[in-house]
Amino acid sequence: MHFALGTTSILIFVLHKTAARDDTCRSPSSDDAGNDRFSCASTDIKWKWDPTSKSHPCNIHRISHSDLLRLYGPLGLPNLYPYPLVIYPDDVDSNNNNQGDGSKYRTRRNEFFANLTSIDNLPKQFSADFNVTLTGSDSLSSHRRIVPLTQYLEEVIIGNQHIGFPGETLPYQLGNETWYLFGETFTSEWANFLQNYQLPSCHSCTELHYQQHLVALSFGIGNIGSGVQWHLHGPGFSETIHGRKHWVLYPPQLRPEYDLNYASRHWMENVYPVLDDWNSLDVEKERHGHVEYLQKWKSTKQEGAAQKSVKDPDDAKDEDNGPSNKKPWECTIHEGEMIYFPDGWHHATINLESYTVFVSSFTSEHVSTLEETSK
Ligand SMILES: *[C@@H]1O[C@H](CO)[C@@H](O)[C@H](O)[C@H]1NC(C)=O
Ligand SMILES: *[C@@H]1O[C@H](CO)[C@@H](O)[C@H](O)[C@H]1NC(C)=O
Ligand SMILES: *[C@@H]1O[C@H](CO)[C@@H](O)[C@H](O)[C@H]1NC(C)=O
């Protein structure tokens, strides 16, 4: 990779790898000096949940972009769709395997944007001293740090130097000290740049909604294992532009238990592995939910109404049933694919490649539903 950040970083990377190999593996310890807390390369440690695996499960319904339009019309996904949904580009290259990287798509949306955001091209889209605002990876994302974009790219690729893993965020790194470019991309420079992004197909994602600031775009870059701890907000989409990103979600009434001090990989390492797998009934329920929604939507052609009527009576109340002993809804979003996250669903994300780039579109579906139903 010819990377504009120069040879020094690559050199540190190589030296560090070599040095790490010679040490015996130790578990992470709380060394206050912050040095040498981990003395072996991460690949030498047997993690319970391995982000680099190419075969994480997916229990979320997947639909192609053209099927979405065929089912719901040219505007795409109706407002306040009640379940997570993965939308993948059409035109799958049948010579490629069907669960690989984004290269399987001969044509994909946002191909131009993907070109602009390659690790070589991204810094060229901004002035040389362009700064980015990083946030902590804990649920609250309350910590901030401002650094030049080029410095962040270097940190992402070579990893946290004083901990010493190239391109990787570990389960035991404190969330408030794990810096992440995500969400804080609302300046005019970012707004200009994000005009190159083609919006998802949804009833609240039209050009008009965008111009009226009813869609907020946020851009992010993370390395292996990085990502934000469990949190929730309104509905929207997140498209993976480069790399792979794993999503885990629970419906509003199943509030997961997690440690506020750490990022999402901590939960994947410590809680996820002991949860029960979905059984065939869970799988059937997930599938049936989408079918039922489509039927209701066709008969009412009114999203608010369709959403209300498909809600499971047990789930409809806002009561808090607490953490589930079952695994979450989950799927890996590959290049060119996107996920819809429903309103108020708890979710956490974990990036799976050393350069994972994504764009999230936060929609105003409640506002639009009111407009549509009052017409
Ligand atoms: C990206 O865009 C540049 C300039 O427009 C072009 O020369 C290059 O071939 C493109 N690369 C890819 C991978 O599409
Ligand atoms: C970025 O931050 C540095 C200080 O950290 C400052 O000197 C520089 O002017 C900033 N760049 C821009 C474009 O504001
Ligand atoms: C992060 O949180 C821990 C407590 O969990 C605290 O000891 C540490 O000082 C915090 N770091 C920063 C940079 O605020």
UniProtKB/TrEMBL annotation:
Signal sequence coordinates: 1-20
Organism the protein comes from: Cyclotella cryptica
Keywords of the record: Signal
A Pfam family the protein falls into: Cupin_8
Domain of life: Eukaryota
Coiled-coil intervals, chain numbering: none
InterPro entries linked: Cupin_8, JmjC_dom, JMJD6_ArgDemeth/LysHydrox
PROSITE patterns: JMJC
Region described as Disordered: spans on this chain: 302-329
Residues in JmjC domain copies: 188-375
SUPFAM superfamilies: Clavaminate synthase-like
Name of the protein: JmjC domain-containing protein
